[in-house]
Amino acid sequence: MTEQRGDGRRHAAEEETRAWAELVETARRSVADGLVVGTSGNVSVRVGETVLVTPSGVPYDRLTPDDVTGVDLAGRQVLGSLVPTSELPMHLAVYRTTAARAVVHTHAVHATAVSTLVDDLPLIHYMAAALGGPVRVAGYATYGTDRLAESMLRALDGRTGCLLQNHGTITHGATLAQAYDRTAQLEWMCRVWLTASSVPGLTPHLLTHEQLAEATERLSGYGQQTSSPSGGPPSGRV
Ligand SMILES: [Zn+2]
Question: Of 14, 16, 87, 187, which is the active-site residue?
């Protein structure tokens, strides 16, 4: 082995160690924040061609640096000896089809409740723009199956998160922090919709697709302009 290749491997190992620590921290935070009960969720992060992922059935407070669990994009175990999460097919499907570097899956209570009621999360709040648009519900399939991963991919088309019918949430992002924040926003929006729609005799107002499109534009940075270059109406309004 050349010295350069040795350096490359050492660098990759350091990156994996750092990413694993961040993954464990994110998994523990999901429990502390009430998004996950016990070991019902799972988290993964991509480092090069390796996907580090929470192992199946190990409480997050017991995970140590030695428990690092990793697979390649085909699902073959390349790091550690603990069995990876049973939801591996969903995580790998996201990495194979998007540029995502992190995936968070939970059974968060309000989001899971909403997943049993509708086919799309009603446009109750403009933060849907942070997930790429109206959030869809992926049709039900048994957990851990390729069929569930396929159903999820259809619901994720053009989005960074979706609900899984009678199951939970899945979001992805460029970092663990971003994927986690999207899950927290999704759960919050589901909670707002459930709260608003459960007031007897009243029906919540919903946003139009046009209103969401305006929010999307602002969130992507265009909204910082006070007027459009063509002299159109100012976009700085709240
Ligand atoms: Zn699950």
Answer: 87
